[in-house]
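hey m, so remember when u said the C-alpha cells were messed up on ur end? i reran from scratch. heres the input so u can diff it against urs
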Amino acid sequence: MERDLTAYREVAVQVVRDARTGAAVVRPLSGQPFAPDMRVHGAGRLALEHPIGAIFLVQAKMTDRLGGTPFLYVYHGDPVRALTPAEAKRWLGEYRRLRI
C-alpha cells in the first residue's frame, strides 16, 4: 500500500528542550496551523543529531492514531531541509496560516 502524499504538507519544526523531561524534542514553530507544543513523531533523529534551536522544513501530516491525541508524523525517508532563523521567518511570513 502506498502513502497518500496529498496528506503531507510542509511544516517548519525546531529542536527544543522538553519542559517536563529536559530531553531534546522536535516541535512545530509558532505561526503555523499547528500548536507549538504538538508532538512530532518520526523526526527523533533530528533531535538527536542537531543542537537545540536547529530549524528544519519537513513534510508532515497530522494524525491521531485511532482516536488518540493528535500529532504530526514525519516519514523517515522524506527529505529534510535545514533553515536559518531568517529563512524560517521568511517562510512563515509567506505561508501564514490559521492555527488548527
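this time it looks ok to me. The mean pLDDT is 89. if urs says something different then somethings off w ur setup not the seq
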